[in-house]
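URGENT: need a sanity check before tomorrow's submission.

F., can you look over the Protein FAM234A record below? I want to be sure the sequence and structure line up before it goes out.
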Amino acid sequence: MEGKDLEAEIHPLKNEEGQEQKAPVGPGKEAAESLHSRLSRCRAAAFFISLFLCLLVVFVVSFIIPCPERPASQRAWSVNFSGTATLSFLATEDIDNDKIQDVLFIYTSTNDSDLSNHSCADQGFSSPCSIMAALSGANGSVLWAKPVAQDKVLADCGLLSPKSCSTCILTSLSGSMQAIKSCTGNSLWSQLSSLGSKASVLSPLLLLPDMDADGVLDLLMLSQNGQVHSSVISGRTGFQIGHQLSLGVEGVGRPLLHLTSMGAYYVLLPCRTSRSLCSWSLKEIHKQVTGREDTVFKGDALWEDTFNATVSRLLLHNSGGIHQVVRVLGARTEELLVVAAEALALLSDQEQEPRWILGSTRVLRTPIIGNYKPQAKAVAVENGTNDKDRQILLFGLDSGAILWRQAFPSLPGAPESASLLTADSHSVFFFWGLPPSTSTNQTVQAPQDAPHSLYMFHPTVPGFLLELLNVSAQVVAFRVVVLEPSRHATILLLTGPSPVSLVKYKVRDLIQHGRLVSLQKSKPDSELAIRDRFSRLRYLNTKA
Ligand SMILES: *[C@@H]1O[C@H](CO)[C@@H](O)[C@H](O)[C@H]1NC(C)=O
Ligand SMILES: *[C@@H]1O[C@H](CO)[C@@H](O)[C@H](O)[C@H]1NC(C)=O
Ligand SMILES: *[C@@H]1O[C@H](CO)[C@@H](O)[C@H](O)[C@H]1NC(C)=O
Ligand SMILES: *[C@@H]1O[C@H](CO)[C@@H](O)[C@H](O)[C@H]1NC(C)=O
Ligand SMILES: *[C@@H]1O[C@H](CO)[C@@H](O)[C@H](O)[C@H]1NC(C)=O
Ligand SMILES: *[C@@H]1O[C@H](CO)[C@@H](O)[C@H](O)[C@H]1NC(C)=O
Ligand SMILES: *[C@@H]1O[C@H](CO)[C@@H](O)[C@H](O)[C@H]1NC(C)=O
Ligand SMILES: *[C@@H]1O[C@H](CO)[C@@H](O)[C@H](O)[C@H]1NC(C)=O
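Structure tokens as predicted:
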């Protein structure tokens, strides 16, 4: 029957004729015919109704319902405030839900009539006070700005909560803390300091697994008052959990929480006592702070062995002690880059020995990690006795071999370098400095008013640097980020100290006007082709 219907649709005339010939002559014939014609009319009606509905939907979608408006983002913007900026805190997060990351920063207001309508006095502070501000990443308009503290604060955003509307923890140097919702600036909790008056907080706060089993992650605050003390802070309320614990050493660097491949947590801190890298198992800290044991927290004897062996080997030829420890997300696990006064080592907790130890390095600023080739990570180290004789060295992370080296003088107080992953699985590296010399013999002229410049480097064109910017003001904070889903990188600069200026640039726009610096003696074949190479890069918003 169905086959016949189909046939009828394909050859309506022929079929009718055929049917007429074949149909049996009898009393049922007329009834069958009228049924048939009614059916085909129904079918035609159904066809036209559905066609009409389809067209209606197309019409509604294309003309009546407006397209979702693509957020229009200004290519560059700058905002100036009267006040001073000294805190190198610059965080990005989508606060107004326009799919463009917005910018959070803190400055000290001297005149609060220009930004928020909350004055320092409104919040019970005397002027000047610290103001936290959120600016739209799209155009720099103020989303919110509020006085948050009397004095300088350390800030950490994105801790403790989901990505949208995260929690920022502000810690004063004397240890009082408050949690602020990043989307509104409203306070979630605040706690006065329980530290002594002479104590100072070691930045950053460490995010701990849930220590008090209330479903919210907790925080570890290390403070120094002669010796280092640790306090576990509840992420839900800001109250101290258990009691403060003296760690019995004097710290000199930034603390770090390391997770071994066995799932054990260790707090690491470069310490002056024994000029070493001190390590405490979180299991032990938890036990001493709360007075009970929890099977959630483990120790890792194998890692402790490796750690002890590496640290003692590093100290063998290092009178200057250990300065920093940097976390590296390796292919398999978290690895640690340990920076000593005159050496550098990579520690992997799956191997008994350090992966490599490099002598005769003097690291000026925190090393950064990026991809030199796809699947081949590199460490960018600023090496030298001072900024004038600085060289940038790129080491292969797996081998410790030098991949690239360039004499590249800088000025004291220059911002740290940065890297950003590109879609072709490399990284772009950003360095601050004075125009690099092609011959190492060249003496550096660095007059105090010389502008700092920002350079970009891509490993596929190792013979060139592109100068993106000249900045004569002091750069307090610098970030290279992908603010929009567009895969274009953006540079954010907080300059100061007085007045405060926050500037956003698109990297691609800077490339158009940038100056190509050839590191080889010979001139490039085609400047245009190399500039194009930089210009066509697409970026990923993930950390290496
Ligand atoms: C901010 O100040 C800088 C110079 O200090 C100026 O170039 C820029 O145009 C100013 N921005 C605004 C929005 O006024
Ligand atoms: C604060 O800024 C306003 C307007 O910009 C200005 O009139 C006033 O004099 C400033 N006050 C101080 C103390 O700088
Ligand atoms: C200023 O205060 C008014 C109410 O007092 C409020 O509606 C407005 O949003 C505030 N503006 C800013 C920028 O905080
Ligand atoms: C800036 O962008 C926001 C949306 O992100 C918009 O609401 C605001 O009106 C814009 N301001 C200006 C001055 O264009
Ligand atoms: C590592 O060294 C520390 C102090 O130097 C010591 O307390 C600890 O027992 C050592 N760990 C191992 C596994 O040897
Ligand atoms: C690092 O810098 C120091 C001091 O300038 C120098 O002696 C050393 O050779 C450099 N290291 C490397 C690996 O180039
Ligand atoms: C460095 O350059 C100066 C001239 O600018 C020259 O006199 C000197 O011999 C050079 N030194 C070396 C080691 O090449
Ligand atoms: C920076 O300044 C130098 C010297 O004044 C100039 O040659 C160069 O083109 C400037 N670079 C940029 C990116 O504007």
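My own read: Residues 12-23, 438-448 have pLDDT under 50 and may be disordered. Helices lie at 2-10, 12-22, 28-64, 282-290, 301-316, 507-513, 527-535. If you see anything odd, call me.
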